[in-house]
């Protein structure tokens, strides 16, 4: 489905097909294991329909699907609308060799502390149970950066992300020290900050963006007020990459950014 924006069902369908082929199963062979019709398996893989609750558990076991995909299948089976980015983007993160991101308002999720993540997610007015589940999910995603062979993670933040209060001053101080420490201690993490003195810049009117490279391909995630979109069309991805490169050129160097972040942390501590 290159060249198109995929729905959550279409993405899951594609992953089911890839997992089936990796197991060396035909559609007919997979169908017989339930049993369901071969045409229903075809509908799953095309994204025309999602597997029902009675099939999800067996499908996960037969195809040895990753935990991330299991959550999306469960949501779809319950007729819940999974966030557009959920299945698609988490799968991309899991196999990325490079992640390039820009965040205009908050610290990126992969660098958030538990308290900061909770403060950000609380803005969505979740129930306590839902809130803690989302906090755990967000922290779980950070395992990507702790892999034996982690991706190169290059984050660009607007200075607003380190000066706008999220939670208490102590939460802000701890969060910014964490970002600075991660960038200093882990060679595969790079953090840059675009200072206020730059004025308006290429990302000024947009939301968060992420570019991921894996298996010789590159895809992008673009956030907006309503949803997130995963972009696969090469021409569109190139536009987003150029935007990210412009933002990187406007940002401070790694060392200058670290100094600015630590200075901001000290201000929050006083």
TrEMBL record:
<dbReference type="Pfam" id="PF19054">
    <property type="entry name" value="DUF5753"/>
</dbReference>
<dbReference type="Pfam" id="PF13560">
    <property type="entry name" value="HTH_31"/>
</dbReference>
<dbReference type="InterPro" id="IPR001387">
    <property type="entry name" value="Cro/C1-type_HTH"/>
</dbReference>
<protein>
    <submittedName>
        <fullName>Helix-turn-helix protein</fullName>
    </submittedName>
</protein>
<dbReference type="GO" id="GO:0003677">
    <property type="term" value="F:DNA binding"/>
</dbReference>
<dbReference type="InterPro" id="IPR010982">
    <property type="entry name" value="Lambda_DNA-bd_dom_sf"/>
</dbReference>
<dbReference type="InterPro" id="IPR043917">
    <property type="entry name" value="DUF5753"/>
</dbReference>
<feature type="domain" description="HTH cro/C1-type">
    <location>
        <begin position="16"/>
        <end position="69"/>
    </location>
</feature>
